[in-house]
Design goal:
Elements (H helix, E strand, L loop, with lengths): L2 H15 L6 E4 L1 H4 L10 E7 L5 H17 L5 E7 L15 E3 L2 E3 L9 H10 L1 E4 L12 H27 L9 H20 L5 H11 L5 H12 L8 H22 L1
Parallel strand pairs: 2-3
Antiparallel strand pairs: 1-2, 1-6, 3-4, 4-5
Helix pairs in contact: 1-3, 5-6, 5-9, 6-7, 6-8, 6-9, 7-8
Length: 262
Amino acid sequence: MNVETALGRYLAIVDSVAPGLVEGLYVVGSYALDDWVEGYSDIDIVAVTAEPATEDDFGSLRTVHALLAEQQPTPAIDGPYLAWGDLVVEPATGLHRPWTLDGDLHHDADCFEINPITWYTLATSGVTVRGPAPQTLGIPTDVEARIRFVVGNLQGYWAEVTNQVAVACEHDEPRHWAADTFVWCALGALRLHHTAFTGEVVSKRGAGEYGLRVAPGEFHDTLRAALAMRAEGNRGDVTPSLMRVAAAIMAWCITDVGAAVR
């Protein structure tokens, strides 16, 4: 199912359940960055309401996403429900808004997608489905905030992931790794490396192509394998050696960025 059809069904449901609630709808993520793989990729959105969603609004959205799961379980439609006023200031840590991940609605924790990368992607590449063009909204895109965010994410979240993968790869018995896990590890940290050094935001495919230009040569065969698997909808055989190199790629990204920002 393509993005236009999926979002048409989503809007039909939300407008039926809660008329007027969603005033703006924008596509970000891989689709906005020209790297969406039909049959595999989720649809990353930013939905906009007039005012911050109330508990009653959250109840309506629960109904919306329950109906969506019945009528259109895939592709997952993921992202935050923000108010217009949220978008004219830098994204705030601890800002609680409804959000979906893997098609499941949440309102019980911070939404990771409320961050400077999402703001920048929306402002520069966001695809308008409903509402004014994102370029007219006055969305802040401070490059230093964006770089601080990716450096912190590399040194925290990605360092933990790297350690977990490296430890798992040391086990004597080979472990089966899913292709999507391999692609995510091999290309994900490179996206943040790219932002740390350029200020720009790039897709997974773009990160792999970037890695072939800047990363050490011993990583190139693994990056090509990750790019090939992504192009095939994250399908392919992942060997233990590929995952070991993916862990090394993540570690290199963290070390290289850390050395540059000291």
